[in-house]
Amino acid sequence: MELIINVVLLSMLIVVACFIARSKDLMVTVILFSIYGLLCASFFMLMDAVDVAFTEAAVGAGISPLLMLITLASVGRFQQAGRYPVVLIGFIGAVLGGLLVWATLGMPMFGDALAPVHQHVAPRYIEESGVEVGVPNIVTSVLASYRAFDTLGEVVVIFTAGVGVLSLLGGGSYQKRFLIDRIIDREEHKILRVVSKILIPPILLFALYVQFHGDYGPGGGFQAGVIFAAGVVLYTLFFGLKVVQQVISEMSVRVLAALGVLLYGCVGLVSLLKGHNYLDYYALAANPKTGQHLGILVIELGVGITVASVMILFFYTFARNFGGRGAVS
């Protein structure tokens, strides 16, 4: 049965990808990308990668299509004729795809028990993480403790992406902001507004649950941050930028994005000041496991704050800069 489900999902992925490549209606393409993200999330669920499925569903099927739709308000809905022949583009795509397939031939088969990762890395984490870290969710132990420095780098990359977007698109005009508010706030959206008011509180509550339940089940700062941002974005769509920014201003989002990275980094500084290695949580409490729990809780909170803030900042910036033309027309 699992094989049948995998074949069906893979077939659907291929069909959706072909339609994306052939479609010249960018609105349809964005919707297909959202469907593609949901299918990928289903694949991750089948592979028991629930944490990744959370993120893919929220980003690939949620926030990313919304940013694309806002961009379409400025660039137009239909694709213009390209400068390069379709045959050339198809040839380049086929060559790159062939190289990727050829590269995977040297990798172990999926699920191969003799693969190096199952012979060395996985047994170490599975057998020792309960004693050393004391967190039931091994994924959280790996990402937040064993690979804490690597995860810090990922958070810094997200923060840097936010800074880059602000540097390139941070100069949007207030006229565009007014125009996109006007088109979002029209009276015919009353039913959607009522439904959104019912849905948004559970979404935000679920984000907090995912944030603070990551020690015991799928979740953590990355997933919770994206889910929380999706709730704010949904509210913005139906009530406008001005209303949302009265609660969460753009300046406060910028500060929070930096604060999350700072909070993560300061945990490592505390470890250094107490004579331990950087991000060694044993220094945070007299009991080693208590120190691990405390350190993971704080750094996951920093991750969640930064991820949510950067995602909201992306939406604010795109809505402010790419909302004008579509609102006028």
TrEMBL record:
InterPro entries: CPA3_antiporter_subunitB, MnhB, MrpA_C/MbhD, MrpA_C/MbhE. Residues 12-75 form the MrpA C-terminal/MbhD domain. Residues 115-169 form the MrpA C-terminal/MbhE domain. Its main location: membrane. It is a multi-pass membrane protein. Keywords: Cell membrane, Membrane, Transmembrane, Transmembrane helix. Pfam families: MbhD, MbhE, MnhB. It is found in: Cell membrane. Residues 191-312 form the Na+/H+ antiporter MnhB subunit-related protein domain. One of its GO terms (cellular component) is plasma membrane. The chain crosses the membrane at residues 6-21, 28-47, 53-72, 84-105, 151-170, 191-210, 222-241, 253-273, 293-316. Belongs to the CPA3 antiporters (TC 2.A.63) subunit B family. PANTHER family: NA(+)/H(+) ANTIPORTER SUBUNIT B, NA(+)_H(+) ANTIPORTER SUBUNIT B. This is Na(+)/H(+) antiporter subunit B.
